[in-house]
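INFO worker-7 received task bundle
INFO bundle size: 2
INFO processing item 0
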Amino acid sequence: QEQLVESGGGLVQAGGSLRLSCVVSGRTFSRRRMGWFRQAPGKEREFVASISWDAGTTDYLDSVRGRFVISRDNAKNTLYLQMNSLKPEDTAVYSCAISKPFSANWGYWGQGTQVTVSS
């Protein structure tokens, strides 16, 4: 059973930056797609970014493309999300996710870390 633990959230002013991390334990981290999702109060969870197992392919929510960068270190079983030029509308709980083994479907999520951007 995979365990995903996020860190790096906090309170930041608009225009600032934060770097989120997600450490994965359990079964093999490599060769599995990983991603970040977020959920703001009263809203549905939405996809933010994803990265292929070899980091060769990334995908982003349109509103964060050019501001956020997803990366991974397979040797450290760690996923990152560098968030720059943060806006108040980026305020949400950010969770990392990993695909099911041998599948492109998302299988497991972490508990999340709160990101609050003040105006």
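INFO item 0 finished
INFO processing item 1
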Amino acid sequence: QVQLVESGGGLGQAGGSLRLSCAASGSFFSINTMVWYRQAPGKQRELVATITSGGTTNYVDSVKGRFTISRDDAKNTVYLQMNSLKPEDTAVYYCYAIVNHDTKNRYAYWGQGTQVTVSS
């Protein structure tokens, strides 16, 4: 079983910064793609940023130039550096990872979510 545990959420101010972390624990071979999603009240869950095992990144247009996704494979951790925060960034942020259990089997896991609230 693999667990993803997010941390770093909380209250931020418009124009400020927050850094989210998501650490994977358990028994597995490696981690493939890692993703940050978010879900604002009354809205559908939205993909925010992805990073592949090779380090290729992609972002939703609304966060390009403000957010940076990165990973530390030695720590099995993915980060989301959020700068120039806006009130519309307020949401629960979820970590998602595709985990390789061996050379043939891979499964996807979700974290429990961490609340980010940005005040104007």
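INFO item 1 finished
INFO post-check item 1: The chain is about 0% helix and 60% strand.
INFO post-check item 1: The first strand starts at residue 2 and ends at 7.
INFO worker-7 idle
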